[in-house]
Amino acid sequence: MKVFRKIVQVIFIWFLMIIILFLICSHIFSKTILNQDYILGQLEKENYYNNVYHEIQSSFEGYIGPSGLDESIFDGIVSEEQIKQDIIQIVNHIYTGEDYTIQTEEMREKLNRNIYESLLNYNVSEEEKVSISHFEEEIIKEYQEQVTHSEYFEILEGIFPKIIQKLPALQLTFGLVGIIVIGILFVINKKMILCSISDSLLASSLFLLFTKLWISSEIEIANITILNDAFSKIISNVLKDILDNWNIVAIVGIIISILCLIGSYFFFYRDKKQIKATKNS
Q1: Where are the transmembrane segments (predicted)?
Q2: How far is it, in rounded angstroms, from Cα 28 to Cα 9?
Q3: How would you label 230-241 residue by residue, b for 16+ Cβ within 10 Å and e otherwise?
Q4: 129-158 residue pLDDT tens
Q5: Greater confidence, 277 or 152?
Q6: How far is CA 242 from CA 31, 172, 212, 281, in A?
Q7: How confident is the model at residue 214 (pLDDT cuts 50, 70, 90)?
Q8: DSSP secondary structure letter of residue 190
Q9: Residue 280, helix vs strand vs coil
C-alpha cells in the first residue's frame, strides 16, 4: 500500500510541475509577446518606424529603373508618421481582431501628381496613362506589403486574439487544478506536503533553466534574421526578454524550493526523533 501511495504521490508531483510550468510561462508570455503595449514599446525603443520608412523608400527605388521615371516622384508621398499610425493599427488588429484600414488614397494622389509634374513637358499617351496607373497600383501594393508583411500577418491575426482571449480562463483552470492537486498530495502525506510542492517547483525551475541554457547555446538570438534588420531586432529583443525572465524565475524557484526542502526535512526528522524519544520513554 505504501508503494502504491508513493507512486501516486510522484505522479501528482509531476502533474503539479506541469501546472507550475504552464502558469509561469503563460504569465511571462502575457507580459511580453502576448502584450500589445509591450510590443509597441519595443517598436518605439528600436526606432522601428524610422527603419521601416527607409526600407520602404529603398524598395520604391527598385521600381525606378524599369519605369524610366525620375526618383523625385516618391518625394513626400509617405511620411514616417503615416507609417507609424498604419503599423499601430495593424498591431492592434493582430492583438484584438479589430478592423483596420490602411489609408492609401492620399499617397496615390501625391504619387500621381508627382509623376505628371515630372512629365510636364512630355505628351503622355492613353496607353502610357494606363501604364502609369498600373505603376501607381504596384507602389501602393509594395507599401502595404512592407507595412503588413502579409505572409506573417495572416498567420498571427488568426492566432493571437484567440490565445489572448482564452489565456485567462486557462490560467484560472490550471490554478484551480493545481490547488486540487496540492489537496490530493496533502491527503496522501500531509507531513511531506511542503516537500512535495518544493519538488514540483524545483523540477519546473530546473526545466526552465536548462531550456533557457539549451536555447541560448543552440540559437544565436542576436543574429536572428526574419524579414529585415528592423523586424529581426524586435524578435531578438522579445526572445531575449522571455529567456531572461525564465532565468530569473528559475533561479528564484530553485532557491525557494531548496530552502523549503531543507526546512521540510528538518521538521520531518525532528518530529520523527521526538516520536522515537517519546516511545523510548
Answers
A1: 7-29, 169-188, 200-226, 246-269
A2: 29
A3: bbebbbbbbbeb
A4: 888 999 999 999 999 888 887 667 777 777
A5: 152
A6: 9, 22, 9, 58
A7: very high
A8: G
A9: helix
180 versus 124: the higher-pLDDT residue is: 180
pTM above 0.90, yes or no: no
Q: What DSSP letter does each residue of 225-269 carry, written as one string?
A: -BSBHHHHHHHHHHHHHHHHHHHHHHHHHHHHHHHHHHHHHHHHH
DSSP 8-state assignment for residue 117: H
- The CA-atom distances, in angstroms, between 270 and each of 44, 108, 131, 189, 275 are 57, 81, 90, 17, 9
Rg from Cα positions in the chain: 30
36 neighbors 223 (Cβ within 8 angstroms): no
How does 120-139 read in b/e, with b if 16+ C-beta sit within 10 Å? Answer: eeeeeeeeeeeebeebbeeb
Nearest to 23 by CA among 150, 138, 182: 182
Mean pLDDT of the region 93-109: 88
Are the beta carbons of 135 and 67 closer than 8 angstroms?
yes
Q: How far apart are CA 229 and CA 19, in angstroms?
A: 37
Give, in order, the Cα–Cα distances in Å from 112 to each of 65, 137, 172, 237. 18, 10, 55, 39
CB 170 within 8 A of CB 26: yes
User: Are 236 and 49 a contacting pair, CB within 8 Å?
Assistant: no
Is residue 74 within 8 Å of 113, Cβ to Cβ? no
- Looking up cell 502579409 gives 150
Query: Under a CB-based contact definition with an 8 Å cutoff, are residues 37 and 31 in contact?
Result: no
What element of type H or E holds 88? helix 80-96
Q: What angle do CA 20, 259, 276 make, to 5 degrees?
A: 110
The pLDDT of residue 16 is above 80? yes
Distance between CA atoms of residues 235 and 241, nearest Å: 10
- Residues facing 226 on adjacent strands: 228
Q: Which amino acid is at 80?
A: E
